[in-house]
Design brief:
The structure holds 2 protein chains of 2 kinds. Chain A has 16 helices and 6 strands. By secondary structure, chain A is mainly alpha-helical. Chain B has a single domain, classed as ABC transporter involved in vitamin B12 uptake, BtuC (Orthogonal Bundle), CATH 1.10.3470. In chain B, the strands form 2 sheets. In chain B, strands 1-4 form a two-stranded antiparallel sheet. In chain B, strands 2-3 form a two-stranded antiparallel ribbon. The longest helix of chain B has 27 residues. Chain B is globular and about 55 Å long. The two termini of chain B are 41 Å apart. The chains are: A mainly alpha, B mainly alpha. Chains A and B meet through helix 6, helix 12, helix 14 and helix 15 of A and helix 6, helix 10, helix 12 and helix 14 of B.
């Protein structure tokens, strides 16, 4: 039991289960999944579908945060990606042809990679703090997206593109399949090779890892590029869902949701150790939270308040101070070897030692 | 008297050095000032009626609330933190003002309450950040959602303010020739003055700079780090509450959706004003210049007429880039 309570995923999973229980109590049919026209239908499937874009953005965000960075520009990149893809489809003579759609997707993703490279350049080569470096694109990016759409909400009709947002593959929503697929591949690459460890090394101590031969700069550059690419993919899923490119509102606040997903998942914003499974749970918690609000009949206007309370509860429970209290209480009961101090405290212990 | 004579001699010499060697700390602010001056000159030569007292007065009138937000944000950023909640807290304060006035509460009670709402949220941020070691980014992000949600809970719809004494307070205006100064501009200028005095002439202000320069060193020096850090967020929250009041005076209404993304404008103004986001370096007056630069971009785009509104965002992004790069070069040279 103690091991379960101490597991880093305990609180996020508890939050997710609590939300699902609350939903099922309010609407007993909540967890029911039905098969219609060979596709799966039901609230859980819907949650998986809306988790898709958020999961992609949060995935990139986790990697960036692992290197002690942050990427505030993802919302703007989402808007740019949708704007590029839909503008290309709208201006082409044959919006229904798969070639047009593939070119549009290629163009959008290529531009998003460029934007990611730009962020990486500012952070790793110029050495600008990540929060400001990406703030630049966060402000300018939406302007660029509006420039591309000409300030209008571009709408198109294109069946092949629509599949991305509301299609089904093997009975599952395509958006969820893409997002979870990318997540699985990245998780595999990061955790089954040394890449994840190198990222953590960069985040824990950039100077030391550089001295021990880790190519911190290249790694930093790579994660921002990846974040841009994933945000671009998320932008395609979002714009394919609505079939409209709204430069002002597409992906609005998705950077904040993604950061919350990462934090709820137990990855500290101070970098270093990261936790992809936690991010997955975090993204599911946020998507479920959004559904819960509608199921419980809470006015959507109060959603932010509800979300704030969940975030405050989870972050306080995860805060070092609370953990110390909890471990101290446990230590009093049974003599447990002390937990290693969190990364932030070596300075303070050093001070005490003097 | 005898001791003052030798003391004044080196001071004189230092005064003579000023034109040749300027303190590095002032360079970013000077850069902002040059940009502002250039924008005024370019605007003045390109458009008629640009360099008129009416336009400059309006620049202050339209941005009074942002000036107050930027002053509060400067305190937080100087300690090395950040406050993402100011836009939402501003909205909360406008909604509280409008809702209470509608319910018939007297103005003398409503105004302190609206400001106090910001103070309380700021205090909560400070406690979360210092005592629970939640990162400022996350704590104030939660505060941002919290305040915005509270707004909708109090008033989902926009509430017009028609309280006679509030309206008369809001429409108070002092006219000097063609220059106009409204009550909100007066309040904003007082806040700037207070912010300047507190940062440079009080122990609290010096501790704010010390924490930004190095929290561990400040702690070792025996400075009251905990109190000062919490107070910085209280100052920012209070400023956001006051900013909301000014915005309510400006718009004569309280609406839950005001100030969306306004925290970014405030942060951009502070950065353009030469404050380092790592903390420890920066000035309140620089932040005011930053707000004026942002306001002037809007004014120029309005005067240009043919430019679409989204150019504002692109220009702000480019300016941010230039200033950040400039700061980077300056800090590189220092080390």
């Amino acid at each position: 039991m103690r091991d379960v309570l101490r597991h880093h995923l305990f609180w996020p999973v508890a939050a997710l289960v609590a939300l699902l229980v609350a939903n099922t109590v309010a609407r007993p049919s909540f967890l029911a999944i039905t098969v219609r026209d060979g596709h799966l239908f039901g609230a859980p499937i819907d949650i998986l579908r809306i988790t898709g874009p958020l999961l992609l953005v949060a995935l990139g965000m986790t990697l960036v945060i692992a290197t002690r960075g942050i990427d505030l520009s993802v919302g703007a990149v989402v808007a740019v990606s949708g704007a590029v893809a839909l503008s290309h489809i709208a201006s082409s003579p044959d919006p229904e042809s798969p070639v047009t759609v593939l070119t549009a997707i290629g163009l959008a993703l290529a531009l998003c990679v460029v934007l990611g490279v730009w962020n990486g350049f500012l952070v790793s080569v110029l050495g600008i703090q990540p929060i400001i470096a990406t703030l630049i694109l966060m402000t300018a990016g939406r302007g660029v997206a509006m420039l591309i759409t000409g300030g209008m909400i571009t709408t198109v009709n294109s069946a092949p593109f629509k599949v991305l947002g509301s299609g089904f593959w093997l009975g599952l929503p395509v958006a969820a399949v893409i997002a979870f697929g990318v997540f699985a591949v990245v998780a595999f690459v990061v955790r089954r090779t040394a890449l994840g460890m190198l990222l953590e090394a960069t985040g824990i101590n950039p100077a030391a890892s550089r001295l021990s031969g880790v190519r911190s700069k290249t790694l930093t550059w790579t994660v921002y590029t990846a974040s841009g690419l994933f945000a671009g993919l998320a932008g395609l899923l979002i714009s394919a869902d609505t079939m409209a490119a709204d430069a002002n509102n597409a992906g609005l606040f998705i950077e904040l949701d993604a950061i919350l997903a990462v934090v709820i998942g137990g990855t500290a914003l101070s970098g270093g150790k990261f936790n992809l499974s936690g991010t997955l749970v975090g993204a599911l918690v946020i998507a479920t939270l959004e559904r819960t609000v509608t199921v419980l009949g809470i006015s959507p206007l109060v959603t932010p308040l509800f979300m704030a309370l969940v975030v405050i509860a989870v972050t306080l429970l995860q805060s070092p101070r609370m953990r110390e209290r909890l471990t101290a209480a446990r230590r009093r009961q049974i003599a447990v070897p002390p937990e290693p101090q969190p990364a932030a405290s070596p300075d303070s212990t050093e001070v005490k030692a003097r | 008297m005898t001791t003052s004579a030798p003391a004044s001699a080196p001071r004189k010499r230092r005064a003579l050095q000023i034109p040749t060697r300027l303190d590095r700390r002032y360079l970013p602010v000077l850069g902002t000032f040059v940009v502002l001056a250039l924008m005024l000159i370019v605007g003045g030569t390109r458009y008629e009626n640009f360099l008129t007292p009416a336009v400059i007065s309006n620049l202050f009138i339209n941005n009074a609330h942002l000036i107050v937000l930027a002053v509060g944000m400067t305190f937080v950023i100087l300690t090395g933190g950040i406050d993402l909640s100011v836009g939402s807290v501003l909205a909360l304060s406008t909604v509280v003002t409008a809702a209470l006035l509608q319910a018939g509460w007297p103005v003398a009670v409503v105004i302190p309450l609206a400001v106090l709402a910001g103070t309380v949220i700021g205090l909560a941020h400070g406690v979360m950040i210092h005592y629970f070691q939640v990162q400022p980014f996350v704590a104030t992000l939660a505060g941002m959602f919290f305040a915005r949600g509270l707004c909708f809970l109090i008033a989902p719809e926009s509430i017009a303010i028609d309280n006679a004494s509030f309206v008369s307070l809001a429409s108070w205006v002092q006219i000097f020739g063609e220059w106009r100064m409204t009550s909100s501009v007066l309040i904003a200028l007082i806040v700037v003055g207070l912010g300047f005095l507190v940062l440079h002439f009080t122990r609290f202000g010096r501790t704010v700079y010390a924490i930004g320069g190095g929290e561990q060193s400040a702690l070792l020096m025996g400075l009251p780090v905990a109190r000062t850090k919490v107070l910085a967020y209280v100052v920012s929250g209070t400023c956001a509450g006051l900013g909301g009041l000014l915005f309510a005076m400006f718009s004569r209404s309280g609406y839950s959706l005001t100030g969306v993304a306004m925290e970014l404008d405030a942060i951009a103004a502070v950065v353009i004003g030469g404050t380092l986001l790592t903390g420890g370096t920066g000035f309140v007056l620089g932040s005011v210049l930053g707000v004026l630069v942002l306001g002037l971009i809007q004014t120029i785009i309005t005067f240009e007429g043919t430019l679409s509104s989204w150019w504002t965002k692109i220009v702000i992004g480019v300016l941010l880039l230039i200033f950040v790069a400039l700061q980077r070069i300056l800090t590189l040279r220092r080390t």
